[in-house]
Amino acid sequence: MRIExxxxxxxxxxxxxxxxxxxxxxxxxxxxxxxxRDMVAKKYEAEIKDEAKxxxxxxxxxxxLEEKKxxxxxxxxxxxxxxxxxxxxxFAATVETAPEFELPEYKGLxxxxxxxxxxxxxxxxxxxxxxxxHAKFETMARPLANGDVAVVNYSGTCDxxxxxxxxxxxxxxxxxxxxxxxxxxxxxxxxFAAQLIGAQAGDKRTVTVDFPADFVTKELQGKKGVYxxxxxxxxxxxxPPLDEELAKKFGxxxxxxxxxxxxxxxxxxxxxxxxxxxxxxxxxxxxxxxSFDLPETxxxxxxxxxxxxxxxxxxxxxxxxxxxxxxKDEIYTAAAVSAKERVKLAFIVxxxxxxxxxxxxxxxxxxxxxxxAMMYQMPLDQFLKDxxxxxxVNELYDQVQHEKVLELLEKNAALTETAAx
Length: 421
Description:
The chain is α+β, with helices and mostly antiparallel strands. The protein contains 14 helices and eleven strands. α9 (296-316) crosses α11 (328-356) and α11 (328-356) crosses α14.
């Protein structure tokens, strides 16, 4: 797409931007805003030219899209630029157009939900989890039993070699001293803790494990490990009583208020999980009803976004950078699949929003920004500045629009209740 703008409009933009600079400029010997125009134009020549170029090309490009009624994907590739004072602005914009497709029926999509409610037993389990946060671990002079914590020293091998020879980043899986393992938790290595039951402090045992096929350390997946383990201590987990004192530790005025708060939290969780389940089902049904070619640029950009999110999530969970690097091919493959689904859904959502005349206000976008700033633990003004730097404001509006369309699909879903599992 070739675009031209006459020299008069170019000069008008230069004049307007120069005036803005003149109002703010502070040059030696002049009060702020009182420096002569010619001096300001000379001092800030490069900045004025860059801003005029950016504004004129952006405005002319958007106007051309409106006139030609072209729906594009992503940012244009701008080239062959002719630009200067008192010159006709000329440039070529290479764009990727949005796909054309027919929307399927998106109201009345099927979804199943479990007939479920929060029970007294659910509240009791949640309260036990809260008690666990203030548990004490007492050293016991007896054999290790289910529910205890084993404090161990261990060293591990695989194929007769130290595990670090197979995976240099797996130092923690090779050797540890005074390592705590809950016998009720298989979060360490499945089958490890069970083989220590009945041992007493000072006992030594050989523990054999089968690393799962999806084990976090790729080099160990599906292999056998052998561990020499010494049980240092047996610790019993002692929960505090469920009383007024415990309630106050969690900011509740009384045990009754703590119970009520826990029940409310569980009900909100259940409501969220039901909403998520409905939305997942209607989106799956909707996606299966339509097919179209996806713009390569949009998929590539979204793949980069997904990779960034996956790496950030793994880093926040404490996964070592070296381990992430060893799994980069798997991460990229998973990201590419996810990106295609997200891009396809984005086009469908956009079309529904257009048909339903769903609008996103500035207040809607600001609320979303506040939520994201809290999630990333950033001050709101810093988050907004970062968003503007990476041209992410439109993305914010898209997120809110996406949420409104999913809400519409959920409200209009054809629901079937099933018995709770």
